[in-house]
Design a protein that fits this description.
alpha+beta; binds iron/sulfur cluster; two-stranded antiparallel sheet; about 10% strand
Length: about 100
């Protein structure tokens, strides 16, 4: 499956599998505290949790797969593929806009 991922201005196209059974085994967060990836809110201590989770994501070999899976399955909560809920909403909006253009 060919997937195009747009985060901010960068566009990356790669061959990925969105089947979680395949990519989850390579997840950098596999042995981390899941609470880190599901901070409560986006202010106060959650800011540090979000930054720490994103730091893990940006070392992850399956970040594209994770992000695409979260977009495909409408994951509203947590950090997926190095993005927050708000960032994923923005990606969805941008993709909808691109499809209409
Ligand atoms: S991108 Fe982040 S949340 Fe997704 S599998 Fe990798 S470390 Fe976990």
């Amino acid at each position: 499956m060919s997937v195009t991922t747009q985060t901010n201005a960068a566009v990356t196209t790669s061959m990925v599998s969105l089947e979680p059974k395949i990519w989850r085994n390579s997840a950098a967060c596999r042995d981390t505290d899941p609470d880190l990836f599901f901070p409560v809110g986006q202010t106060g201590p959650a800011i540090d949790h979000i930054a720490s989770a994103k730091a893990v994501c940006f070392t992850c070999d399956v970040r594209v797969e994770c992000l695409e899976y979260s977009l495909m399955t409408n994951q509203d909560a947590g950090i997926w593929g190095g993005t927050t809920e708000d960032e994923r909403r923005k990606i969805r909006r941008e993709r909808r806009k691109q499809r209409r253009a």
